[in-house]
Design a protein that fits this description.
Strand order of the largest sheet of chain A: 3-2-1-8-7-4
Number of helices of chain B: 6
Number of helices of chain A: 19
Number of strands of chain B: 5
Helix content of chain B: 55-70%
Radius of gyration of chain A: 79 Å
Radius of gyration of chain B: 26 Å
Strand content of chain B: 5-15%
Largest interface: A-B, 35 and 36 residues
Order of helices and strands of chain B: EHEHEHEHEHH
Oligomer: heterodimer
Number of strands of chain A: 20
Shape of chain A: rod-shaped
Structural class of chain A: alpha/beta
Strand content of chain A: 5-15%
Strand order of the largest sheet of chain B: 2-1-3-4-5
């Protein structure tokens, strides 16, 4: 036991005191053993095994043992309490609760430990807070940054920032101003707000205006930690609280102000929030800048695209225009080439024309000169011819037969005509060559009258025409003009009048022209007085369409008239040109079949400078008919018919004034073996009929001048010898009444012109055979 | 052969007609002068001509038309036509003249002796034709006479062959009648 083995018990049986002792010693040993077990257990549990809270339970001990037990329990309890306090705080810290402190009393090293742990917790707490703040800052910045990413609409971004950031920094009012330089000067315009009531007007600030403007100007954050006035309020539906803190932050990117953000809150902003805002402003700056840049880029892109598109269109347009231009250019060059060619041709033609014109002028000059010379040369031999012919006509030796005298007279007449023609040609060529001179002298009207009467009265008498010269009394006694030319004109006009007048009268009237007359010749317009020589005839006249022709050289109103009335057609042409030389003009008025009136107007005084060059001769010439080859006349075959034989030997009398018709009819009837007698008028027809009793049948034209067919027929019928003579009427008219008239006049039958030959032959055959039949019977 | 040959002169100018008549003087031809184509046709209706001198250019009916009318009539188509014209240098007109049947075409002024010669040829031709016609008439007449005599002889012979009592008398009468006609 002493050696510490307390498991040993006194097993010796003892009685009494020993027993008692023995019991006591055994009890003591038991107690001691229990005690030692308890102390050992507690020491082992608390000290070695870490099971705190263990207490030695030793019963029935007292005294020292009890104290010892209590001390051991005290030791274990203190150790347990301290460890548990530390463990509890540690557990809390481990769980993240950094608010705990080790509050257990401790001394010595344990106290030191406790303080250290407490300090450690505080440090840990501060570090954790800093980390948390940093984390908040970072995460929120990252979140806002994330939200800002991909945004394109500035207004949307501003609203989003207001929406997100204002509550994040515990602000109740937020405002976002964006820089606006659209109208030239920089303005800060309220773009988005949070909880702010703008009073119905646009909120803008210039640089330096208000805090916003100031922040923008100084590019620094401005903080106002108390509401300077009561104007800004945080309004809710219920309350209006002035804000306690206000911060204005400029948004700057690379030195350029992009906008200003303002926040206000009823509580002061924490440093963290301010830091956040400061950092956020940078992010916003980047974002806004990016968006603006993007937008600008987009705008520029759009613009450039638009421009590119426009450019493309313009380029296409340009290309098209270019192509068109090229086409046009080509066309133009072609046209230019054409025009050049044409120009060359025209130039050549012009040169040719000039050449021709010169040649013509030369030729004309040559012609006129030639004509003038030729006419002169022609006149010379003609003189002797005329002279000798005249001598022969006089028959001074009385050895010519009347026939020979007539021949000589004809020679003289023809020669005179030729001389006149040559004179005419000479005059015309002289006038055309401009070699005709005028010599104005004073001419008495009585002289003119004398000359005209001498020249034309015998001719008029010969033709049985009336001829009169009337000189008006109001005329001055004389006029100044070229007497010879005036005579020539008057002679021309009068001889024309005589030539074309078969019955009636030719009158020359000399009188002053009416004051109000209008002339197209300046000399007449300027003249003090104009004298009119008017030649009036009652001849064949001139139709309107020929009036303009007659003044042309070699023209007369009618080509056939030319031969019927002779003359060259030069007279009027010369007269007109002479009238121009005298400063006057010739006008004509005429009615075909009733006569013509030619009027010569001349000024009373011919001023030498009034002479007008004659118009160039007209190239118009009446051409002779060209190719007029007629087919050789086809002779009708002699028809052999019974009718033909019946008509053989028949004598027919044709009374018709249309010789063409008669001749054709005669040809046909002679082919049938008939003998044709002919008369071109009724009277001769009747006479012929009386002379030729062998006439079997008469063909009678209904319409004849003087005595028509009806009258002739009646005359024939009055002779009883011809009562039964067949008379067949021919008439151009196919009027219903004609047949009756013909039959009433005594005609036997009737046939219309143009005559159908077969019909006529048949008709004649029936009448002739009928007559013969009567004779035979 | 008492009928004289006639020449038809056609010109619208009297002095030309006069000249033509003068040229033809001395020829055995009677000149008939007319001043238009119509007048020429009228003359041709009532008379026969040995030759026609025709002016080509006349008012109204010109020479060419006149000639074409003449050539269309059987009785006048063989009458020779000499065209006379003042328009020289125009071969077309000459062609036209020949085309309508002219035998000659002379341009004025022509040599009168040429015309005279030509006309005299045609006159001679006409006279010859006339003589020929007259002679053929004579021949025809003789032939008819001869045939009559032959017939009479035949008839008389036939009569004599018969034994009729008056055959000799009738034959003699027949022959005498044939020889001397119905006297």
């Amino acid at each position: 036991m002493a050696k510490g083995d307390l498991s040993q018990k006194i097993t010796v049986d003892a009685q009494g005191e020993i027993l008692e002792l023995k019991s006591t010693v055994n009890t003591m040993v038991d107690q001691l053993s229990s005690f030692a077990d308890e102390v050992t257990r507690v020491a082992r549990e608390v000290g070695t095994e870490g099971k705190l809270g263990g207490q030695a339970q030793v019963k029935g001990v007292s005294g020292t043992w009890r104290d010892l037990t209590e001390n051991v329990n005290q030791l274990a309890s203190t150790l347990t309490t301290q460890l548990r306090a530390i463990a509890q705080v540690s557990t809390s810290v481990t769980r993240g609760d950094l608010t705990q402190r080790i509050a257990v009393d401790a001394q010595g090293e344990v106290a030191e430990l406790k303080d250290n742990i407490n300090q450690m917790i505080v440090t840990l707490r501060e570090t954790t807070k800093t980390n948390a703040e940093q984390g908040w800052l970072d995460s929120n910045l990252a979140r806002i940054g994330g939200l800002l990413q991909g945004q394109r609409d500035l207004g949307e971004v501003c609203r989003m920032i207001m929406m997100e950031v204002t509550p994040l920094v515990d602000a109740q009012i937020g405002a976002f101003f964006l820089t606006d330089t659209s109208d030239g000067s920089m303005r800060l315009r309220l773009t988005a707000s949070y909880g702010y009531v703008a009073r119905g007007h646009e909120v803008t600030f210039g640089p330096g205006e208000g805090l916003v403007g100031q922040a923008a100007l100084s590019r620094r954050t401005i903080r106002v930690s108390a509401s300077p006035d009561g104007r800004l309020t945080v309004r809710s539906g219920l309350a209006a609280t002035p804000p306690a803190d206000l911060v204005v932050l400029p948004i700057v990117f690379e030195g350029e102000l992009l906008g200003v953000i303002e926040f206000a809150g009823v509580a002061a902003f924490s440093t963290l929030h301010l830091t956040f805002l400061d950092r956020l402003v940078l992010t916003i700056g980047v974002a806004v800048n990016t968006i603006q840049a993007n937008r600008r880029t987009e705008e520029l892109l759009a613009q450039s695209q638009r421009l590119a598109h426009e450019l493309q269109e313009q380029s296409a347009e340009l290309q098209r225009t270019n192509a068109e231009l090229e086409d046009k250019a080509q066309l133009l060059s072609e046209q230019k080439a054409n025009i050049e060619t044409q120009n060359r041709e025209i130039e050549l033609a012009r040169l040719g024309l000039e050449d021709k014109a010169q040649q013509l002028t030369r030729a004309s000059a040559y012609k006129s000169e030639f004509l003038a010379n030729m006419s002169h040369e022609l006149r010379t031999p003609l003189n002797s011819l005329l002279l000798l012919a005249r001598l022969l006509v006089e028959n001074s030796e009385q050895n010519l037969t009347p026939k020979q005298i007539e021949f000589a007279r004809t020679i003289h007449g023809s020669g005179s005509d030729l001389l006149r023609l040559i004179d005419d040609i000479l005059d015309l060529s002289k006038i055309e060559a401009g070699r005709m001179d005028v010599e104005p002298t004073e001419v008495q009207f009585t002289d003119i009258r004398c000359f005209v009467e001498q020249a034309f009265a015998p001719q008029a008498e010969e033709k049985g025409l009336g001829f009169e010269v009337q000189v008006a009394e109001e005329l001055p006694p004389s006029l100044v003009t070229d007497a010879q030319r005036l005579q020539q004109i008057l002679r021309n006009l009068l001889s024309n009048a005589m030539k074309f007048t078969d019955a009636g009268a030719v009158t020359l009237r000399i009188a002053p022209a009416p004051e109000n007359a209008v002339y197209d010749v300046p000399a007449l317009t300027n003249a003090r007085q104009v004298i009119a020589f008017t030649v009036v005839d009652t001849g064949i006249g001139i139709s309107d369409d020929k009036l303009s022709l007659i003044f042309e050289a070699f023209q007369q109103a009618d080509g056939t008239t030319s031969r019927r009335y002779g003359g060259t057609g030069l007279g009027l042409s010369i007269s007109r040109d002479l009238a121009r030389l005298l400063g006057g003009s010739i006008t004509v008025s005429s009615t075909s079949g009733e006569g013509s009136t030619f009027t010569l107007h001349v000024p009373d005084v011919l001023a030498p400078d009034a002479v007008v060059a004659p118009a160039p001769p007209s190239p118009a010439r009446a051409g002779l008919p060209s190719s007029l080859l007629m087919p050789p006349p086809a002779l009708p075959e002699r028809p052999e018919t019974p009718v033909t034989r019946r008509l053989e030997g028949v004598t027919v009398l044709i009374i018709d004034d249309d010789v063409r018709n008669v001749f054709a009819l005669t040809s046909a009837l002679e082919l049938h073996g008939m003998t044709v007698l002919y008369s071109d008028n009724g009277a001769d027809g009747v006479r012929l009929l009386a002379e030729h009793p062998e006439v079997d049948i008469v063909l009678m034209d209904a319409m004849m001048p003087d005595q028509d067919g009806y009258e002739t027929t009646r005359q024939i019928r009055r002779n009883h010898r011809f009562a039964d003579l067949p008379i067949v009427f021919l008439t151009a008219k196919a009027m219903p009444g004609d047949r009756e008239s013909a039959l009433a006049a005594g005609g036997s039958d009737y046939i219309t012109k143009p005559v159908d030959l077969d019909e006529l032959i048949e008709l004649m055959a029936s009448w002739v055979s009928g007559t013969r039949g009567e004779e035979i019977s | 052969m008492t009928q004289t040959a006639k020449a038809l002169l056609v010109d619208d100018r009297r002095e030309n007609l006069m000249a033509l008549e003068a040229i033809l003087q001395g020829l055995p031809v009677q000149s008939v002068a007319v001043e238009s184509g119509e007048a020429a046709l009228k003359q041709l209706l009532v008379d026969d001509f040995a030759v026609i001198l025709l002016d080509a250019q006349m008012p109204d009916m010109d020479g060419f038309e006149t000639a074409s009318h003449i050539k269309r009539r059987e009785r006048t188509r063989h009458v020779p036509i000499i065209f006379l014209t003042a328009a020289d240098k125009d071969a077309q007109l000459a062609l036209r003249g020949y085309a309508v049947g002219a035998v000659d075409y002379l341009t004025k002024p022509f040599d009168p002796w040429v015309l005279r010669a030509k006309v005299s040829v045609f006159v001679e031709l006409w006279v010859k034709t006339r003589q020929l016609a007259a002679q053929s008439d004579v021949v025809r007449e003789r032939e008819a006479q001869w045939r009559g005599l032959t017939d009479a002889v035949d008839e008389a012979t036939a009569l004599l062959r018969t034994d009729a009592p008056d055959a000799r008398d009738r034959a003699v009468e027949l022959l005498e009648q044939a020889r001397w006609g119905n006297l």
